[in-house]
Write a structure and sequence with these properties.
Number of strands: 26
Helix content: 25-40%
Distance between the termini: 53 Å
Number of helices: 16
Bound molecules: zinc ion
Largest sheet: 7 strands, mixed
Shape: globular
Radius of gyration: 29 Å
Length: about 525
């Protein structure tokens, strides 16, 4: 959910730019029924007239994914390179009623003037085309915001992170470096995308039968590497999955797939010989509706695999997704399908810099201030230490919502502003304070009992109470049914209430609810939710 604000000027006349507007994926376990998260941007929403622009560094979902949803609240012009603009446009097409976003295409290397900010796109290697660091110049100094990056001298597709460009910024004088921490806990340098391409080429060439490769849809270099490897050994590429289709379309428009054979739709798969096909699939994270998990269950309408075929995970399992990914791997292996992952072969590299790469960035830019970003607390802490060791005079530890003064004066944390999460729940967006998700979690844990009781004006029961329950076991350890226990608890409670009290619906509701929860807890060890409705007749 990347979203960084840079402000300039005295508080009352401060102007802002927003760098990136990303979304996150919620884990189903903690957030039942929710899969997407957006950053809470209420701080800048309240100042949207002073927001001069939204600058997109690159097209990964954690940098652009919230744009379509959040833009109507911000209404500032958006700047992005062609590939990112193309992906936002296709996303809008797939969301009916999407806003008409003011999208402006930026050519890397160009500068953009927005009030006091002059923003220059500085190309970097990463794992998606057209990734950029930003050189943000203001009258108070130059800030380098790296975005996501790595150093890859042979990136297979697109440009490299140019030492000369960053050295030139260093010579100009960098006030602050706001730098990616994702892989800073790892020593050394990351392998190259070209090494992965070579490994994939061998694995495709010596595969006895079909090959299916799953990767992050946005990794166009990887898609290109697979297509070239397939072409080299006379195999056709079949593209399966909506996200993959979308990226392939935009990448093709931008010229990143030129010179390759035409990709085939899933329907072509059945007509291709077993030794003449490579399927490119979505679903490397075990997403249940994506192509790979359906294929693993042998439930895909077009794509089937059988014993002796080879599946390559050209991806890394994002923490939290291990369970569904392992389930897929086990399904495939059980059916005699060979599975290859990055644990045994160099079939994936990260797009983020390891320690030695980060060290070089500090050496090139020589900042006065370091602000580690992109990462969990552990990564940020390791990065902060590391930056000090690189000789950076000021290291500021910031978390979500931290406002840092970079200049003038001693750089420091000056404020904390609201910066929570928003959740996409069905078709609505809810905030952290909304009770819907904690309530659903509670229901999932201990079920619910619903009771309706009719009481007349004299305080007498009119008919038997109606009881429904869900998510509660049928019987106790000693064999009684919970249904009977609930009925008895209701009857006892009502009998025990003086008639005057029975005419007070709220008192009846409270007493019955307490009794039911109490008896269930005594026999189950857990307390369900309990809704008691008293109707006066
Ligand atoms: Zn990112
Ligand atoms: Zn990225």
């Amino acid at each position: 959910m990347n979203a960084a604000l840079y402000g300039f000027g005295p508080e009352r006349r401060r102007k802002w730019i927003l760098v990136d507007c990303g979304m996150g994926f919620a884990s189903e376990e903690h957030m039942p029924g929710v899969d997407l998260m957006y950053p809470d941007l209420s701080f800048i929403e309240q100042r949207s007239e002073d927001l001069l622009g939204i600058i997109i560094t690159h097209a990964h979902e954690d940098h652009i994914g919230a744009l379509v949803e959040m833009w109507p609240r911000l209404r500032a012009p958006v700047y992005a390179t062609r590939f990112a603009v193309g992906l936002v446009e296709t996303r809008k097409l797939s969301e009916p009623g999407a806003p008409k976003i003011e999208l402006n295409e930026i050519v890397p290397g160009n500068r953009l003037q927005l009030g006091p900010f002059s923003v220059e796109y500085v190309p970097v290697s990463h794992s998606i085309p057209e990734s950029n660091a930003l050189a943000i110049r203001t009258p108070a100094g130059l800030v380098v915001h790296t975005g996501d990056w790595k150093i890859d001298p042979t990136p297979y597709l697109g440009g490299t992170t140019e030492e000369a460009a960053f050295r030139a910024l260093g010579d100009e004088g960098v006030l602050a470096l706001v730098c990616d921490s994702t892989n800073v806990v790892r020593d050394g340098v990351s392998p190259s995308e070209s090494d992965v391409a070579a490994a994939l080429k061998d694995l495709i060439a010596d595969a006895p039968h079909r090959v299916a490769i799953t990767t992050f849809a946005s990794n166009v270099a990887r898609i290109r590497a697979v297509a070239e490897a397939a072409k080299a050994c006379g195999r056709e590429v079949v593209v399966v999955g909506r996200a993959m289709d979308r990226v392939v379309g935009v990448a093709d428009d931008c010229g990143y797939l030129s010179g390759l054979n035409e990709f085939n739709p899933p329907q072509a798969y059945g007509y291709l010989d077993r030794s003449r096909v490579v399927a490119l699939l979505t679903g490397s994270q075990g997403e249940p509706r994506a192509a790979l998990s359906r294929i693993a269950e042998d439930e895909h309408p077009d794509i089937a695999l059988s014993a002796g075929d080879r599946v390559i995970f050209s991806s890394r399992t994002i923490p939290g997704n291990e369970t569904p990914v392992n389930a897929i791997i086990n399904n495939l292996v059980r059916r005699g399908i060979e599975v290859i992952t990055d644990r045994t072969h160099l079939v994936h590299v990260s797009g983020h810099p390891r320690k030695d790469e980060v060290a070089r960035m500090y050496a090139w830019t020589r900042p006065q201030v370091a602000v580690p970003v992109h990462g969990e607390d552990l990564h940020l802490a390791v990065h902060a230490d590391f930056a000090r060791k690189q000789g950076v005079p000021n290291v500021v530890r910031a978390r979500n919502g931290t406002m840092v003064r970079l200049a003038p004066g001693q750089p420091e944390v000056i404020e904390h502003v609201p910066a929570g999460r928003l959740y996409r729940d069905g078709d609505v967006i809810i905030g952290q304070a909304d009770k819907a998700i904690p309530e659903r979690r509670k229901l999932a844990f201990a079920g619910i009992v619903s009771v309706a009781i009719a009481i007349d004006q004299r305080g007498e029961l009119s008919g038997d109470p109606a009881v429904e329950h869900m998510g509660i076991p049928e019987r106790t350890r000693s064999g009684e049914t919970f249904a009977e226990l609930i009925d008895d608890a209701i009857a006892e409670t009502l009998n025990g209430l003086p008639r005057a009290r029975r005419r007070d619906p709220e008192a009846v509701e409270q007493a019955v609810s307490r009794a039911i929860r109490g008896v269930i807890r005594a026999h189950w060890g857990k307390k369900p939710a309990c809704h008691v409705l008293v109707v006066e007749v």
